[in-house]
Design brief:
This protein is mainly beta. It is built from one helix and 43 strands.
Length: 423
């Protein structure tokens, strides 16, 4: 028999918020020529340093440890223009600035970089824990001739969350180039108009460079780019989930995934674009993938390269594919039909990518939720698809007070209600 139980604290959800433009009062206000490093070093924990309009050059901050955030921000708008070199910071926030370049030398924790306009590269290497990059714009940036290729350049950033940022417009640079051990890219990032064109350097939305490990790419929106995600050198333990891959710019394979050992690829929506999986002979083949609960709408998943496909120990199941061709996902429990969305796809209306009531794939994933994305933009909620732990050591008194041991199996139904089966 089946019993439904609602958790006392409600259905479990993960809520992704957006850092707003609310401004703290200025505890001190500085102008160009001031010693900003000294001001930050001596500032009281929790205070705000405001910068008047102007160009402040390059400021170096190192070894500053606070118990709560010291905020550096423009007095109004984002009219203070500045570059930073920093390292070994604790509880420093950079907010509402125009940043011409920013580089971390390692070791910083509890650092926030929010609501800024970047005109040059952000480089984060070897950070500590709880580093947030949220609500910034990285539009129209061509990195310098001696820079690595990313507008955001990452290496060994397991403590990073990079969310709600905008990457767009022309520029000779990847949106993000990431290596080493990774953190969270998403949710809420938008990549639009990242186009290779005639540039000599790579121009991908996201490139995972070298033997990467542990990156999660979750809840992002890609549209009208040349390459959405390129993994050319191999990697391990990757998560690609809840992303929208909309119409590509030039056709071809906008996801190029090779040499990956261990990847969860689920609840993504492809629309008028394609993904490709395969590896060169010289590289380690793909292995240990789970590809499930995705939508391929007028799109395909192509096995190519010298060692095509997702290799050994690859599970492909519960995918909705509209054209049913040989290049679509094989596997079990697939649905061949056209998805019906609630609206026309639009970056301005992320919720248009919800499946309409009655659409193929509605509540049809192997977790009881919709196939395709379950995240619909900043401020939306994403259901937790992990079944709760079943109760243990339970017993019931039945006829004449005799005790009977019960075995329970846990799952989650389509609306997130804990469901237990008594055996």
């Amino acid at each position: 028999m089946w019993k439904k139980f609602l958790y006392l604290f409600g259905i479990p959800f993960v809520l992704f918020g957006v850092v707003g433009e609310a401004r703290a009062a200025c505890d001190q206000t500085l102008s160009t020529g001031a010693n900003i490093a000294s001001a930050v070093s001596s500032a009281a924990a929790g205070s705000t340093i405001c910068l008047n309009s102007g160009s402040y050059g390059t400021i170096s901050l190192s070894g500053i440890n606070k118990s709560s955030d010291v905020t550096i921000m423009s007095t109004s708008g984002k009219t203070a223009t500045i570059a930073f070199n920093f390292g070994n910071l604790n509880h420093i926030k950079f907010q509402n600035l125009t940043i011409t370049r920013m580089e971390n030398g390692g070791g910083s924790s509890n650092t926030s970089i929010v609501n800024n306009v970047f005109t040059g590269q952000l480089k984060l290497v070897g950070i500590g824990s709880n580093v947030l990059v949220d609500g910034n714009t990285f539009d129209g940036i061509s990195v310098g001739p001696n820079d690595s290729e990313g507008r955001v350049q990452l290496y060994d950033v397991a403590g990073l969350t990079l969310s709600n940022n905008h990457f767009g417009s022309a520029g000779e640079s990847d949106g993000i180039q990431a290596g080493g051990h990774g953190g969270m890219i998403g949710p809420g990032n938008v990549f639009v108009g990242i186009i290779q064109g005639t540039y000599g350097r790579h121009v991908d939305s996201i490139q995972l460079y070298g033997e990467v490990n542990g990156y999660s790419i979750v809840g992002n929106y890609f549209s009208d780019d040349t390459i959405y995600l390129g993994v050319y050198d191999g990697g391990a333990n990757l998560v690609v989930k809840n992303n929208i891959f909309d119409k590509d710019h030039q056709g071809g394979s906008t996801l190029q995934l090779g040499g990956i050992n261990g990847m969860l690829f689920e609840h993504n929506t492809f629309n008028r674009t394609s993904g490709g999986a395969g590896t060169k002979f010289a590289n380690t083949p793909n292995t240990n993938w789970i590809v499930q609960n995705n939508i391929f709408n007028a799109a395909s998943w192509t096995a190519g390269g010298d060692q095509p496909g997702c290799g050994t120990n690859c599970i492909m199941r519960y995918n909705l594919k509209s054209n049913g061709g040989s290049s679509d996902p094989v596997g079990t429990n697939n649905i061949t039909a056209n998805a019906i969305f609630t609206g026309t796809g639009s970056i301005a209306a992320w919720t248009n990518w919800k499946l309409a009531i009655g659409s193929p794939g509605k509540d049809a994933g192997n977790d009881g939720f919709d196939m395709g994305v379950l995240y619909y933009g900043p401020g939306s909620v994403t259901p937790d698809t992990t079944p709760p732990t079943a109760p243990t050591n339970l017993a019931a008194n039945v006829t004449l007070g005799a005790q009977v041991d019960l075995t329970w199996t846990a799952s989650v139904d389509a609306v997130g209600v804990a469901l237990y089966q008594v055996e």
